[in-house]
Amino acid sequence: MSDVGRQITVAMITRNEERAVAKVISDIRTAVPDAEIVVVDSSTDRTAQIAESLGARVILQLPPRGYGPAMDTALRSSEREVVVTLDCDDTYPVNFIEPMARMIIDDGYDLVDGSRLAEKPDAMPWINYLANWFFALVASAVFFRRVRDLHSGMRAYRKGLIENLHYDAQGAALPVELLLRSIRSGYKVKVISIPYRERIGQSTMRPLSSAWWTMRRILVSRFA
To answer: Residue 223: CB partners within 8 Å, gap ≥ 6?
Structure first.
């Protein structure tokens, strides 16, 4: 067994991802065979059953309470030193899981952020790219630090950071606050560029709600 793999939890939030979940879990098993996989699921389809049949630890969130509480549950349910978050839609590169975890374990970082925005990904619609770019610009100005991708679904967190960081889990866009509060609190944060692929299945994101929560979390993380 890999020493690094035994220290990794891969945490995913799912809602009606039965088209993608088997492939994503299989790819994770190939990339990091010894990692724990935790899935917080609010689906009405067979996502939970498929994930459980493939060895993932499934936590049901029914009725759904939203992305923030689900992500908080996933992060805090980890039993290992490093938690790597991943969207369960096949958009993120599982071969980056172990290298990102090693930056926590070997290099002493507390958070490693996988940025999709070194340039516009072909798989990202222009409206999403421009919105991400705009909010990153706002956060950079407010925090006096270059911020590249507030909404990345792929990050590695030291378990101790999650246990000690104070944030509001309610509402959308929780990754924004997790990143910015870590920066404000003086944690050691590293940003790396990652590729981003076309998703499997339909997005459940609500753009207007996400935009409102993003701006709120930027301001709250800086001034509250």
So the answer is: none
Q: d(Cα 80, Cα 211) in Å, to the nearest integer?
A: 32
Residue 170's domain is classified under what CATH number?
Answer: 3.90.550.10
- For 71, the domain range is 5-223
36-94 pLDDT per residue, tens: 999 999 999 999 999 999 999 999 999 988 899 999 999 999 989 999 999 999 999 99
Q: Are strands 155-158 and 111-115 parallel, antiparallel or unpaired?
A: antiparallel
- Asked whether 10 and 32 are in contact (CB, 8 A), the reply is yes
Overall pTM surpassing 0.85 (yes/no): yes
Tokens of 141: 């100005």
* Count of the separate structural domains present in the chain: 1
